[in-house]
Amino acid sequence: MKAFVTGGSGFIGAALVRALLAEGYQVRALVRPGSDRRNLAGLDVELWEGDLLDRRSLQRGLDGCGLLFHAAADYRLWTPDPAAMYAANVDGTRTILEAALESGVSRVVYTSSVGTLGNPGDGTPGTEETPVSLSDMVGDYKKSKFLAEREAESFLARGLPLTIVNPSTPVGPRDIKPTPTGKIIVDFLNGRMPAYLDTGLNIIDVDECARGHLLAATRGEVGRKYILGGENLTLAHIFQLLAEITGRPAPKVRLPYLPILAAAWVNEALSMVTGREPLIPLAGVRMAAKKMFFDSSRAERELGLETRPATEALRRAVDWFIRNGYVSHEEQP
Question: Which tens digits make up the pLDDT trace of 177-198?
Fold first, then answer.
């Protein structure tokens, strides 16, 4: 069977392409003209140049494909042009799913985010059923993904055989941008992380997150959503694990939240003038007010999702960043 993958050159998408190839699928990956394709170099994959807003091109790309994995997204904590993010994440989702509906694919897996789910905020893990609304979303990325997930759900009533997956915080190889979480690891490795905020994340290895997508396609229930997550860890614990992996000292200073929030507001205001990415993204600081802990037991129970310990996922990320030149020679452990 042939699978069409959007976002195939990205972090999760490239891991998904590899997982599909390992299972014997043929893969056609949507790539934007001029995009960075290093993550797909050397793979037996058909590249399909196109755009998520070009419905005719998407329909041609889906021709002959039985599966669609829509993993593409504009993932940034700050953008000078929020409209472009909403166009990619919301309008792009609507367009690709319209094309999928007309193409008659047998199954669609839509990659959402745990950021769209309810989060009690007191350290209690959120689930797929935790109440949530648009007003709970912090920043344009989360808002756009929340709206995109609602778009995806609307296609169920139209007969599209769609399952939603909500990855938590993947780490591991091929984080070429890197992602905001990958940047935390890189900054730690380069000695640029002297302090931290009291927050938390759910860590999953990116390759196991990709495997969860395949399980959702083959074992998941149409219309159901699945958290693809691993271990819930405070940021302090994550730094302690990184310290054990690398031999570098973990930051010991815990920053007070309100002064950092004020600094982020000022930083973002300056960025709106300069057009440069803020050193302290406001959305990131606001997200840190809640520990992003989630419960992936549904995926474990219904899909058979298995994950390695977070320390192994972090070690794989560290090794990849070092091997690929993200760490200065002086700072390499």
Answer: 999 999 999 999 999 999 889 9
Cβ pair 295, 228 in contact under 8 A: no
> What are residue 29's DSSP bridge partners?
5, 47
> Could you give the CA distance from residue 100 to residue 104 in angstroms, rounded to a whole number?
6
Burial profile 84-117: b = 16 or more Cβ within 10 angstroms, e = fewer = ebbbbbbbbbbbbbbbbbebebebbbbbbbbbbb
The residue written with tokens 């993932």 in the block is 75
* Gyration radius (Cα) of the chain, Å: 19
Percent of the chain that is helix, strand, coil (3-state, to 5): 45, 15, 40
**Cβ–Cβ < 8 Å for 90, 146:** no
Q: CB-based contacts of 91: which residues, under 8 Å, 6+ apart?
A: 52, 53
Is pLDDT of 329 > 80? Answer: no
Return contacts of 270-274, CB within 8 angstroms, 24+ apart. Answer: 271/78, 271/80, 272/80
Looking only at the bridges linking them, the beta strands covering 195-196 and 225-228 are: unpaired
Give the single-character DSSP code of 303: I
State residue 286's pLDDT score. 78
Beta partners for residue 279, in sequence order? none
The answer to whether the peptide bond before residue 125 is cis (omega within 30 degrees of 0) is no
d(CA 160, CA 103): 10
Q: Hey, what's the torsion of the CAs at 293, 298, 300, 301, to 10 degrees?
A: 150
- β-bridge partners, 200: 234
pTM given for the model: 0.94
Tell me the one-letter amino acid at 333. P
Domains and CATH numbers, the chain: 2-175+204-230+295-308 (3.40.50.720)
Cβ neighbors of 239 (< 8 A, separation 6 or more) are 188, 193, 196, 250, 251
Cα dist. 12→75, 147, 250 in Å? 12, 20, 28
- Beta bridge mates, 127: none
